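Subject: sequence -> structure tokens, single chain

Hey, anyone have a minute? Need the predicted structure for the following. Not urgent.
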Amino acid sequence: MPQDLARFVRNLLIAVGVAVGATLGINVAWIAMGGGDLTVHGWIALALCISGIIGLTWGLMALAFKSSREGWDDRVDNSLDPGGRPDDEP
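Reply:
Had a minute. Here:
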């Protein structure tokens, strides 16, 4: 259990680091394009958006790996599918 917690905290810190790096990178690109200064509220919104995207991506990929490992994709019953493929026939 402590190893799982350590791995989770490490991955969380990596995700936060990526979000911070992406936020700073977007700000540098914004300034290079000649855009205006970003206010504190803009920084907060940008950080929340990037964190949300990373979190959503992380969660969806975790579900895909869990589904693959537990065989959920193998248990699908396609017997009632009217548009079955030729390789589905017995």
